[in-house]
């Protein structure tokens, strides 16, 4: 049992965390391409923190251009044991108002132009996504959000759309009829890739608008999102700080740490060595175990 190294994926303003010690920007290479940016590494108490601006500093990358495979692979290579995601979302429920925080526990993935798996021809694997977030990390994140003074809802279904355009009214109505609670463009395939990399993942969604379904509110615009995010930035940074401070001194193992056990289907004799090498961080634990068997 070892300590925590908490990966944080979020907006460009969230890394200005009060009390972050030994802060330094560090580039981590990945065989899956370039991550969104360098990582800001440091310590909050006994917890090592690795922060990645999802869209790059200055918000250079639209959602479809975010290389989630490189991001997750590089976070694994940087030693992360767990990942918490913070992202802006639209509300699909009257009860979820702009400014609210939602600790998501389910997803519907409607993205279509993104690489969604580390595994491919030459090394096939299938992981369970029935419960796509880590309940332990989500609970810690929820407690930290409350401590930071957020209006919080625990549990909710996140509809991941491709973007970069916002929804039509017909789409917004459809997603509401499906029982979705919030809508965003970034948590998929991020959550799927974190699971393949055996990294427990929690998603904190910050509501900025009512998408376009609510007749009493203006349709979502970037200016609306930016205004609400600016108001929540300090609270989000406080959430990260409180989360790090609340983690137990010893990180007990999570079932997600070993979720690749039994997930690989390709026989050892049929595996492509180049693919296996590319997966040295994501699946090195199980590949090493099988190869040494």
Descriptive notes:
The chain has one domain: Rossmann fold (3-Layer(aba) Sandwich). It has 7 helices and 11 strands. The chain has helices at 68-77, 135-147, 169-177, 190-196, 222-246, 273-278, 284-291, and strands spanning 5-10, 21-26, 39-44, 47-53, 82-91, 101-104, 106-109, 152-154, 157-160, 182-184, 201-209. Strands 1, 2, 3, 4, 5, 6, 7, 8, 9, 10 and 11 form an 11-stranded mixed sheet that branches. β9 (157-160), α3 (169-177) and β10 form a beta-alpha-beta unit. It is globular.
CATH A-level architecture? 3-Layer(aba) Sandwich
What's the number of helices? 7
Spell the H/E element sequence.
EEEEHEEEHEEHEHEHHH
CA-based gyration radius: 19 Å
Report helical residue fraction.
25-40%
Task: Indicate the structural class.
Answer: alpha/beta
Low-pLDDT segments, ≥5 res: none
CATH superfamily: Nucleoside phosphorylase domain
For the report, how would you describe the main beta sheet?
Answer: 11 strands, mixed
Mean pLDDT: 93
Sequence-ordered SSE layout with sheet pairings:
Elements: E1 5-10, E2 21-26, E3 39-44, E4 47-53, H1 68-77, E5 82-91, E6 101-104, E7 106-109, H2 135-147, E8 152-154, E9 157-160, H3 169-177, E10 182-184, H4 190-196, E11 201-209, H5 222-246, H6 273-278, H7 284-291
């Amino acid at each position: 049992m070892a300590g925590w190294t908490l990966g944080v994926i979020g907006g460009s303003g969230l890394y200005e965390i009060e009390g972050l010690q030994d802060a330094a920007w560090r580039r981590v290479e990945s065989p899956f391409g370039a991550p969104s940016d360098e990582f800001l590494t440091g310590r909050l108490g006994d917890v090592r923190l690795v922060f990645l601006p999802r869209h790059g500093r200055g918000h250079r990358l639209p959602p479809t251009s975010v290389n989630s495979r490189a991001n997750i692979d590089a976070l694994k290579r940087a030693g992360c044991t767990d990942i918490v995601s913070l992202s802006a979302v639209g509300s699909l429920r009257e009860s979820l108002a702009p400014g609210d925080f939602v600790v998501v526990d389910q997803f519907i993935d409607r993205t279509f132009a993104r690489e969604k798996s580390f595994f491919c021809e030459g090394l096939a694997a299938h992981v369970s996504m029935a419960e796509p977030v880590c309940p332990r990390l989500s609970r810690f994140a929820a407690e930290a959000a409350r401590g930071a003074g957020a209006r919080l809802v625990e549990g909710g279904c996140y509809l991941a759309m491709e973007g970069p355009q916002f929804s039509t009214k017909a789409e917004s109505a459809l997603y509401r009829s499906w029982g979705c609670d919030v809508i965003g463009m970034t948590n998929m395939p991020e959550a799927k890739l974190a699971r393949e990399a055996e990294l427990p993942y929690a998603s904190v969604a910050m509501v900025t608008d009512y998408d376009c379904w609510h007749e009493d509110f203006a349709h979502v615009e970037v200016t609306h999102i930016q205004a609400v995010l600016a108001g929540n930035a300090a609270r989000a940074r406080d959430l990260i700080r409180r989360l790090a401070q609340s983690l137990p001194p010893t990180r007990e193992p999570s079932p997600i740490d070993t979720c690749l056990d039994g997930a690989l289907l390709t026989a050892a004799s049929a595996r492509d060595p180049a693919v296996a090498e590319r997966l040295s961080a994501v699946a090195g634990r199980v590949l090493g175990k099988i190869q040494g068997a």
